[in-house]
Amino acid sequence: MKKILLFLLVFVYSFSLELNPTVLEPHEAFKTTFTQNEKDLNIKLELGKDIYLYDDKIKIFILKPQKIEITQEVNIPAPVEYDEFIVQLNNLDLTIPFELLKSKVESNSYEIGIDFQGCSKAGLCYAPMGESFVLNFGNNNPSNEEVVNKTEKVAEQTKSLNETDMIANSLKDGNMLLVLATFFGFGLLLSLTPCVFPMIPILSSIIVGASKNEDMTATRGFFLSLIYVLSMSLAYTIAGVIAGIFGANLQVALQNPYVLVVFALIFVALAFSMFGYFEIRLPQSIQNRVNKTTDGKEKQGIVGIAIMGFLSALIVGPCVAPPLAGALVYIGQTGDALLGGLALFVMSLGMGIPLLLIGLGAGRFMPKPGGWMEGITRIFGIVMLGVAIWLLDRVLDATIIMYLWALLLLGSAIYLKIYKNIIAQLITAVLFILGVILFVGAISGATNPLKPLDKFTSSKAVQSTDEKLVFTKIKNIAELELAIKNSDKPVMLDFWASWCVACKELEEITFKDEEVIKKLQEFTLLKADVTANNEDDKALQKMFGVVGPPALIFWDKDKNEVKSSKIVGYKNPKDFLEIVNKNF
């Protein structure tokens, strides 16, 4: 396994060197000089190799004594189209006549600013930047104090970088062992998220199935769990490295609706297999080849576990938390697939620690094989059906999912009636009651299985329209820029997709919190639905370095992006407000 992993990472890394040239630092990519002449101010913006500027991001201002935009009155070269964007591919040489300045506002001193944003053809987009120059008439050689480099101001702002950029920077600047240890810690934290929980019954059912014919030792339990976790980690690492190098949307790759439906059907098949209706086996021809080895039976089991672990990367997919996004940003910017891939692999191992403990514990504390396993296997079959519904929640309408959960609980209550002991009867009664409650909730229009009677019990069910958040949908960059231009308030853009579990958590929890609603009513709220992942969706995500939804982008009243407020992944109301209140 280690040799295979090393080979794959080295191969991808060497291949990526051909695809990803060296990415320039911001001060190398953009060099600005100001020259004051007798009649005008000359601004030269020299671009590094393979660097281009977004034409619509070039803004020229009189900053002092009064802020006035003069972009339209400066002769800027005609732009060209590149990669579906309108850009400047060559160095800029701009002239600002003194007559223009005096026609706007009379003064003996001006501060002139130029804002811009650019990208590298290698795929990296830089943060918005700007520089300014203090212009004093009668002084053709201004002192260093008179030259104000706004890039330094941007550097000050990076002290409050968003989580994703901080993690990407830590990969660039940190010691490899320290970086890997940090990502292992991130994985441990992510193991507490809902994305990992469904894998617990999957692994447990595998261990129970392996225990039917032989005693399960702690060593064997740990070994089976290790195979499962390594396979899951390998799948996620390969997907992450490919996403980082080629700019693919990892969410779309792992959360494609067709893939999720097929995987859900696999879990349904596994469930009915556990109910005893049939037995899933490898094709006979493959079994014959495997069984030719002395330990064929064991290898056959290992192959099945490895396949299940590999496919389980789909379950981990929704956790596009800052560590994952940071690693992908780092890979995309630097092309260093080796360190980025190792970081993702180690993070996945951290996420798998609870699963390894379950394997170790199951082997140590599991009773000997017997009739009790028949009942446990059926219970895991019910859990497998639950996992299938959980996966379909990213594809189907919320009301349909409510009915499916209700039917699962009611069907489980009827199915478990065959067990006559008092504990089984109590569990059956509880399942039946919960099933009825969910069914009633689904009829009432509820969409959250955790709050099935919300329509009857919550005072928020009668919220007035002005207490709800209203988002305006935008489809492309042009619509986004128009919406920002027309807004007289700060702006928040929400990247959303129908299959995104964390997006639904934001909607159902964070955006329904009273304090959050009150705060966001001060904003113009925009939503980009990137479910289809079409060319417009990809262009929007590329523009802001978004590797997958959910992601929230903010602008202040002056139409400037507030990069430090960027949010990736789910945030509860408290954390969300803490981030937003720092800048607004």
TrEMBL record:
* UniProt-listed InterPro entries: Cyt_c_assmbl_TM_dom, DsbD_gamma, DsbDN, DsbDN_sf, Thioredoxin-like_sf, Thioredoxin_CS, Thioredoxin_domain
Q: What is its main location?
A: membrane
What is the topology of this protein in the membrane according to its UniProt annotation?
Multi-pass membrane protein
Q: Which CDD domains match?
A: DsbDgamma
Known Pfam families for this protein? Answer: DsbD_N, DsbD_TM, Thioredoxin
Which keywords describe this protein according to UniProt?
Cell membrane, Cytochrome c-type biogenesis, Membrane, Redox-active center, Transmembrane, Transmembrane helix
Looking at the keywords, is Transferase present? Answer: no
- Gene3D superfamilies on file: Glutaredoxin (3.40.30.10), Thiol:disulfide interchange protein DsbD, N-terminal domain (2.60.40.1250)
GO cellular component terms, alphabetically, are: plasma membrane
Source domain of life: Bacteria
Q: Which biological process annotations from GO are given for this protein?
A: cell redox homeostasis; cytochrome complex assembly
| Listed NCBIfam families | PRK00293.1 (NF001419)
Q: What is this protein called?
A: Thiol:disulfide interchange protein
In its UniProt entry, the species of origin is given as Arcobacter cloacae
